[in-house]
Amino acid sequence: MYYIVSAAGGELPVDRAVQSLKVFTNCLYDIREKGVISITGVWDAGGVNGTPSIAQAYAMGKSC
User: Fold this and answer.
1) Which of 39, 38, 41, 37 is nearest to 8 (CA)?
2) CB 38 within 8 A of CB 6
3) Between the N and C ends of the chain, which has fewer C-beta atoms within 10 Å?
4) Which domain holds residue 56?
């Protein structure tokens, strides 16, 4: 399981979203966390483009 989360606010909303997703996926059978990518300060659609997070997500996807 990979988590990719972005938010306009600071780290707290992103951390809380990741924690909520982890609580949910802990209820599922045979799920293992493989990575987390989080980015803050994203206000508009496409705002994550050109950031290191894109390269991270691409590398994680290739390793599946």
Assistant:
1) 41
2) yes
3) C
4) 2-62
pLDDT in tens, 25-47: 999 998 888 999 988 888 888 88
3-state secondary structure 1-64: CEEEEEECCCHHHHHHHHHHHHHHHCCCCCCCCCEEEEEECCCCCCCCCCCHHHHHHHHHHHCC
Residue 64's CB is within 10 A of a number of other CB atoms, namely: 6
What are the tokens at 10?
């600071």
Query: How many domains are contained in the chain?
Result: 1
